[in-house]
């Protein structure tokens, strides 16, 4: 439309049309304005404020505008920070690997083994049923299952498999990873299912006609084409795990640290600038990770 | 008078509070409570009170409205936010309901004004713990931020605390208690007598402490001293070396697997205990009551080293003057006049003026909660539920036995920031 208008503007360069032309030139900007305003006011501005506050000074009562790097040197110079980041990255890696494995197979089953679209949708909706309750409830419901006198332990003791309850089921790293995998697998299933559904079935037929085995089809056709979905799922899962604090707090019984939990501790002690510095460090790290993922897989090209 | 409402089991809490308030309001109107000269109903006054939530109870606001005609607007925050708000937004409140250790931080900034004890009708009824620091003439003054050390200033405009009681009181105490360890008597399998017992290898993986640095460090200090590892000059104000020693000890205990969990909120502590994940842990008295109300044995175990105690009070904002200041005094005098005290005592806390509260409690209630005597009948919670069956005796015994054995008060340390940093290392370790 803009091109057509430009053409007409070239033909007749009368005044009223020029006004229409300038309006037309602004149209895309006008169209982009609402989203730009919303993102600017509710995303960019807060992030900028966090970045600014991270250089401020503070005591228990107030924050003082300043330009100090002590918040960063305190954060980066402490072994607690490094250990906590390593711990969080470890959770992210384990949870990512497990959700990818489980998520891919669930999506693969839904996409290739269920014949009718209706059935696919029904099963997909069943996957989402647990998500009708809140995150916290799904997490907390693990506690009576895994506890010392919980379902698993009492059953195992009763049928005589173990002499006394297993302690590491709850309030341990195992519990944290289990809860996270449970909470976040769907974020992997959905995008992978979406890309698998877009794969042209004739490609698979062609591969089979060319003599590829089932394994080869999977490895050389399906997985490369599912990469964008995996990348999107990875971004979801990694950012969710990196920013998680309630799961780590509840499932480890407060015994394990995560970056967000460290921030929350600082905020509850009103050390906002220190928490802001931490938030900036985490933001940079997560953005680097997302950039890395996007470098490996071009989401837009392959969608 | 209020007992009649407690017997009405099966009504919702809200309607119960309403009828209770109305009943007492009627009694007040008929002359049962006297001595409140001004009725603010003709000239409506609102007092904005904010605080840490323990004593920010709707029942108190309702009753205050009924008795005095003063509307109380209450806001509850956690203690750190309360400290910040008290200093940074002094015009946003009229009455600050804060703990004494917060007052130590806040008062010197000049946002509050002291109260003239001559205008406090029940000043001489206030428990001496808050005046001289001694419950009985021969008790020992506890460590930490003991309320009497921040309870007075030299003059009306002074910002430094007085060493002796003066005419100018910074805060009128509202609510206080003595904390200790909670245990599952059915699961610990032996007598628990000292704070050191929480580190017994027999309870490996079955102990918990709370993950609120300023309180957790005090519990840790009680444990350290009980084990004979260290002798603090003042548990409430440790030096850097003392903090290091304490945290290093905690880290080692954590890595040896002594702790099952660290709890942050009231309900977490209740669940840990009720599920049997933990058999000995730091606990607050309402949490013990909550575990017991599930029919599970739980004891608030008195220990030979004594209790860790906390207390809060009401302070006046500096901007109050004229009719509002008068109303604030009237509110505080009413607070000390007995009804509120009885209400708080009945929840297992203690009130500032025990003598006035006694008139509002039945003999049996007073005997159980304050005198440490076996209950003659069932003891009811303010919401009408049975809290304790007839024959029960309060853990730790009487008021004098419990509050007379306070070893330290919740406090704020000079090395606060260092302590919090080391505490975070303990949690991350």
UniProtKB/TrEMBL annotation, chain A:
UniProt entry keywords in alphabetical sequence: Cell membrane, Membrane, Transmembrane, Transmembrane helix, Transport
Residues passing through the membrane, by range: 35-56, 91-110, 122-143, 174-196, 217-243, 272-297
Secretion signal span: none
UniProt cross-references to InterPro entries, sorted A to Z: MetI-like, MetI-like_sf
A GO BP annotation: transmembrane transport
A cellular component term, taken from the record's GO annotations: plasma membrane
Cellular localisation: Cell membrane
ABC transmembrane type-1 domain mapped to chain residues: 85-293
Membrane topology: Multi-pass membrane protein
Pfam families: BPD_transp_1
Entry's family note: Belongs to the binding-protein-dependent transport system permease family. CysTW subfamily.
Protein's name according to its UniProt entry: ABC transporter permease
Automatic annotation (TrEMBL), chain B:
UniProt-listed PROSITE patterns: TAT (PS51318)
Keywords, sorted A to Z: Membrane, Periplasm, Signal, Transmembrane, Transmembrane helix
Pfam families hit by this protein: SBP_bac_8 (PF13416)
Record InterPro entries: SBP, TAT_signal
Transmembrane segments: 21-40
Keyword Repressor recorded: no
Name under which the protein is recorded: ABC transporter substrate-binding protein
